[in-house]
Design a protein that fits this description.
alpha/beta; globular; 253 residues; 9 helices; six-stranded mixed sheet; Rossmann fold
């Protein structure tokens, strides 16, 4: 069953009087409940634009979005999504528990529920021993983990993560990867955007490749490797983009 679905989703930005930039072009994709779905693509391919549209942060130029059977602006959709942006900003004078309590209050959670949830999440992301430390003293990996904890404060069914391993060392990447697998095993549907092909290859059930605002292809890794006669995800990624660019060049001749 699809928990997220887009149909003909497009986003066009108008720059000045006569210039338009197509950030996303008629994207139709379906994400099944309980899977880890990876979005890949070069810089400027439309990945983050797609995530922002799903979150209702920006409005589509055309097309439709359904999240749990409702549109992206519904209360049901909002309550069941946790989001970790690529470069989150925190009040760094707060401690981990304080920032989590702040987000819990934004969801209008009861104080008793917030307290127990904060304890649970700090244990989950391995930051319980650092609970008295202000965020300004956190490492990059610790900030990523507290961000993931914040995205889980409302116990969402869907996690949307934009570049969750950017700037992390190999140990931090492994810890994040293991945590995502654990959350998925507990029933979370995870949608992540990443430049790190090896990380996507290890955790994702299915993938989609974006380029120049287009959805080039999507499916299981094994299925796409066979379709493109690719040896690995990197080879698949390059071949999909080269095929698209070649077809565009031929059409313009």
């Amino acid at each position: 069953m699809a928990i997220i679905e887009t149909r003909g989703l497009s986003k066009v930005y108008t720059l000045g009087r006569n210039k338009e930039v197509v950030a996303l072009n008629k994207v139709s994709v379906s994400i099944e409940e309980g899977e880890i779905f990876g979005i890949l693509g070069p810089n400027g391919s439309g990945k983050t634009t797609c995530l922002k549209l799903l979150l209702g942060i920006i409005f589509p130029t055309e097309g439709e979005i359904e999240i749990m059977g409702e549109n992206q602006y519904s209360v049901t959709a909002k309550k069941n999504i946790g989001f970790l942006p690529e470069n989150p900003y925190y009040y760094d004078y707060l401690t981990g528990p304080e920032i989590l309590k702040f987000y819990g209050k934004l969801f209008d959670m009861p104080a008793s529920t917030i307290s127990s949830r904060v304890e649970e999440l700090l244990q989950l992301v391995g930051l319980y021993d650092a609970r008295n430390l202000s965020l300004r003293h956190y490492s990059k990996g610790m900030l990523e983990r507290i961000g993931l904890a914040a995205s889980l404060i409302n116990d969402p069914k869907i996690l949307i993560l934009d570049e969750p391993t950017t700037g992390l060392d190999p140990i931090g990447c492994k810890e994040t990867r293991d945590l995502l697998i654990k959350l998925n095993q507990e029933g979370k549907t995870i949608l992540l955007s990443s430049h790190f092909l090896s990380e996507v290859e290890r955790v994702c059930t299915r993938i989609a490749i974006f380029h120049r605002g287009y959805l080039l292809t999507s499916g299981t890794l094994d299925g796409l490797l066979k379709e493109y006669q690719a040896e690995n995800l990197e080879d698949l990624f390059v071949k999909a983009i080269e095929k698209f660019d070649t077809s565009k060049e031929q059409m313009s001749v």
